[in-house]
Amino acid sequence: MVGKLHRISEFFPVTIEEALRNYKVLTEEEIRPAAEFIRSCVRLDPSERLTAEEIVQHPWLSSPI
Q1: Cα-flanking dihedrals φ and ψ of residue 7, to 5°?
Q2: Which InterPro entries is this protein grouped with (predicted)?
Q3: Three-state DSSP state, 46
Q4: Which of 1, 4, 27, 43 is the most exposed place for a label (fewest CB within 10 A)?
Q5: How far is CA 63 from the centre of its chain?
């Protein structure tokens, strides 16, 4: 017997860009740099993540809005 998952769309992951786009807070030009910044903060391998010092000095945080 083969079944279907109900509400399957709830299980599909979205990209960080799609999530940011859905919030409608950033402009289209801001979405990619923001997503790259977020991605660099949440890498699975801790050695690949930004350090706290790198985060506070990151251009995405320090550039004017």
Answers
A1: 55, 45
A2: Kinase-like_dom_sf
A3: helix
A4: 1
A5: 18
Residue 56 lies in a domain: yes
Q: Give me the number of domains the chain comprises.
A: 1
Residue pLDDT, tens place only, 7-51 = 555 556 788 999 899 988 899 999 999 999 999 999 999 999 999
Q: How far is CA 31 from the centre of its chain?
A: 9
Residue 5 belongs to some domain of the structure: no
Its pTM stands at 0.71
DSSP 18-45: HHHHHHT-S-HHHHHHHHHHHHHHS-SS
43 occurs within a structural domain: yes
Query: Cα–Cα distance between 44 and 7 in angstroms, integer?
Result: 28
Residue 4 lies in a domain: no
